[in-house]
Automatic annotation (TrEMBL), chain A:
This is ABC-type dipeptide transporter. InterPro entries: AAA+_ATPase, ABC_Ni/Peptide_Import, ABC_transporter-like_ATP-bd, ABC_transporter-like_CS, Oligopep_ABC_C, P-loop_NTPase. It comes from Neptunomonas marina. GO terms for biological process: peptide transport; transmembrane transport. Belongs to the ABC transporter superfamily.
From TrEMBL, chain B:
SUPFAM superfamilies: P-loop containing nucleoside triphosphate hydrolases. GO terms for molecular function: ATP binding; ATP hydrolysis activity. It comes from Neptunomonas marina. Residues 9-270 form the ABC transporter domain. Signal peptide: none annotated. GO terms for biological process: peptide transport; transmembrane transport. It comes from the Bacteria. This is ATP-binding cassette domain-containing protein. The keyword Transmembrane does not apply. Belongs to the ABC transporter superfamily.
Amino acid sequence: MALLEVKDLEVCFGLRSGAVKALREINFSLERGERLGIVGESGAGKSVLGFSILNLISRPGYISKGAVNFEGQNLADLKPHQLREIRGNRISMIFQDPMMTLNPVLTIGQQMVECLLAHRKMRESDARKIALQKLQQVQIPSPETRLDQYPHELSGGMRQRIVIAIGLLLDPDVIIADEPTTALDVTIQAEIMDLMLNLCEQNNVALILITHDLGVVSEVTQNMMVMYAGRVIERGPTKEIINDPQHPYTQGLMNALPQMAQAGQKLNQIKGAMPPLQRIPTGCAFNPRCEYVMEICRHNLPDSTVSGNCRVACHMVAEMKREQAMGDEV
Amino acid sequence: MTDTNNSLVQIRDLYKRFSISGDFLDQIKFRGGKLVREQEHVHAINGVSLDVIQGEALCVVGESGCGKSTVARTVMGLLKPSAGEVSYRGERIDNLDDKALLPYRKKMQMIFQNPYASLNPRMTIMETLREPVQFHNPSLSAVELRDKIHEVMHSVGVDPSWGERYPHEFSGGQRQRISIARALAVDPEFIVADEPISALDVSIQAQVLNLMMDAQESRNLTYLFITHDLAVVEHFGTRVAVMYLGTLCELASTKNLFAEPRHPYTRALLSAIPRLEDDRPDFIRLQGEVPTPVNLPSGCVFHGRCPHANERCKQEIPALIPLADGSQVACHGVEEGRI
């Protein structure tokens, strides 16, 4: 049994103009110790997916269909106090902006001890020892003094290390990291990603890494999903998708990277922009921007087709697979 | 130094300090029975000299707080330098008053990072674009004005019929196109772009970068491009200036810099870019963090984090030395041949 299994998840936001589907038909599973990357542009639904795994979607958003099973148990069926046992304890979350996650009026030590005491019966002095140990794990210089400092006294990279230390505090099985390094500089980003990679490997923690940076995903994760307008359009081993993307959107995204073009030449751009969720076109959501668009793409939503180790939601890929299969028979 | 004849903008020994001690009364302290005035400063730029050559795209890179945006704003005259000179086509412009600066404002335009903040939410796109054109060309008739604006809108791929709409009706990429249109509307020669694509998605970044490259070609523009994204620099820049803590570490052509980075900081910066390929060498881990620009380190500002630092680096501030291939590096180690 997979550690975490998301089945046919659908999340809606009830707006005055009617319900808008922010996520549709999300299916994936996560094994113990696996590292999964979720990639997409802003508005694709990657953060909503992160939140809905922990059932943190608040009104007007709601999970309208599907299940999130953690060790076989549907999180949507749990009572609030049962859910609290899992949040932070078994599945913890790291957010983009460390200044928003840390409480500015409590010292680092107070925040870490509070978190420990909320989940475990222990003495405060013991909790402080664990906190210190976790700060050492994330390689913070002079951890004893940090415990008594406030968030504003620390730099951005240092704050994000502390947020990671808090995420690891209760030895979770899964960490969901929502753009953990987007607010940081490249050299700090490299250090933090390196640190997270090592910690996950050492403690056999599964990681869901939400990011828009294909470079980061390719360095850290084993598997990845690409999202577009609330759907997963491509899913599979990271190496295969990076080296040989099959969905036209993934191809476009890779080709748009400046690394992919000759210096001084024009970049290969994808025309247009992602539609807002209220105005998703019929058929494949990517069809107005797709250079291989066919008639069927304008009417029918593509199912995900198995192609090698990947699953791709694209009519063109499905067609190619069908032709291949026919060719094999002949 | 580079050949000064074809340089459009010259920056010489630029310093910029910001006081962080509040107003006069806040600065008065009682020390040892005496009233003294104490002031603390953030040293944002410390002796930067740069030439922007006609027709090039000079990229300034560095991490947050290294002073790259301050350089951009000082060049534009939005900030007065604490010391040093900025010249445009050989004429000194940093000491001019607002009125004398007007003709230069028309030739130098700026594109800002956040298109959500840099467009006035209460003006339609037409009004936003009309204002600078009308201001700098008061003799234009209404028809000429409209034609001019429509032409600019066309050139950035914004439909002129959208002119009556307000900024909130546009997406981030479209807003950045409008910001670019506003900069292009007065036919500038020189554009300072401060992180123009950082707030945009990857597929939109490509569109905006292409647009800026097209404009450079068709209008013969010169860019000073401020960014932290090295992948963009490699693609877009003619030359690259790497800044660290308010000083220039390395200035080189894009090809040389990426093929053979000399300064230890540039090497660390390049090694930290996340790559798609598997064969990335391990990144060079720097010790510690960027020191505060309030109390600058002595000697080379990078010595506390540099793996090659020695006694000389702690004492003596390195100057930019020209190398054989035209690059310039401020590092004692490179000068002595240690690195």
